[in-house]
Design goal:
13 helices; 4-stranded antiparallel β-sheet; binds pyridoxal-5'-phosphate; 2 domains
Amino acid sequence: MSAVYLDFNATAPVRPEAKAALNAVLDRVGNPSSVHAAGRAARADLEKAREAVAALVGVVPGSVTFTSGGTEASALAIESAVAAKVDRILLGATEHDAVWEAAHVAGLPVEIWPVDADGVADLAWLEDALARPGRALVCLMLANNETGVIQPVAEAGETVRAADGWLHVDAVQAAGKIAIDFSSLQADTLSLSAHKIGGPQGVGALIAGTRATLARRQHGGGQERGRRAGTENLPGIAAFGAAAREALAGLEDVARQAVWRDALSTRVKSAGAVVLGENARRLPQTLCIACEGWSSETQVMVMDLAGVMISAGAACSSGKVKPSRTVEAMGRPDLAPCSIRISGGWPSTQADWIRAGDVWLEAQARRRPKIKEVA
Ligand code: PLP
């Protein structure tokens, strides 16, 4: 039986259209900064990709700055807000490390913005926090990487704007899974990553609205309007553009996975699993479950041995599993070391989701008699 990959929130397989775009660039020569014909062709590839990424989130191409990924995009946003003289940071309790760590090293006071039991940010807390003195950078992700919980970003955006704050939105997980309209979110900056939507790893973008002035993150040449010096990663960017085009066209297909995800959810719940963020609006292809006393690591291993690749709720970049900060913030520290994430994507099938359920349920059934014996 062939292996099942349901770890799209970690990274997605590269789409054929993205591979074709990448190879087409590699087959030619040309630096987008050169003025000769080859350079102009490379520039055209770069700007075509910029248009496609812009279209994914409903902005004009000039709002897009290419980076090395979602992490760098968020770092650029946070550094830019600091350079624009914000006084403090209000940081969502379930933010990804990319934003969490960058906010903590920004040299400003950081207040953690709590979430409810379903992982949804508390808007009343935000209003109170913004009423306190000092211009704030507010960081709120659009969708959580572990639970798929979608945050009330547009509502938060209105409040942040009224208080003259800066709203940064990490949309790395939401892109390609739900429709995103940058202007209706009322955000100042928004980060994207190619490898979550079927592009290559190591490419991303920061979207900046008209109120945001971006800092110079990297000094040198004038690439990306001086915001990020260095010859552009044109093969990666071209592939990102192609992936963005496909992701936008495929939103409805991803939405249909909610039915398969919910069927799996029902099955695992009947065997004792807790579904995290169950009552919140969530990405259609993400399921985060936990079983008290059954470690994330063991669950991931058992499923991997049976040919199903998923991840621990919070898989850190070193490959080690650490308890999920997201699950802790949701008031379930007991479940934080026991959560796993199953996430599908553009080529996933109903059979993949069923197989994941079969394997998990078999493992759970093997484990339960042992628990009874111990008891
Ligand atoms: N933000 C979120 C929510 C993510 O899930 C990830 C990747 O896991 C990142 C940011 C980092 O993106 P990148 O790997 O492109 O740096």
